Amino acid sequence: MVVSIARICSRAACHRPAVSTLTYVYADSTCVLGPLATYAEPHCYDLCADHADRLTAPNGWEVIRLAPDPAAAGPSSDDLEALANAVREAARPLPPRETGRPGSTTPGAPVEVARRGHLRMLQDPSNTQTPRTTEGGSGTS
User: What is the pTM of this model?
Assistant: First the structure.
């Protein structure tokens, strides 16, 4: 079961992490408080542990508290495998980047011949002539 870490309590001014989901069943006058739902849905309210413990129902309503499944609380083998794969991927060395700078061994790659601020001029790899650059000016007429 994948649950986003970013979900917080729905109560005003409470910024604690949500641990339970509250749903109202109006036809039965029932409040159902269960484990945090996998996805946030409309008309469901995520509550922190304090607000879930202190929840009371309106007069004439019943509160049903669903206990979380203890087997689902711990990490599953899928979670551990995903974590191991992420660690392996992060530890894998990155392939060398190809750059178009002078001295690059990539055949046919553009070669940087001049730079001014954030702009740069690239030489066409098929053109063997040396490009003309303007010294001390902006290069515009």
Answer: 0.47
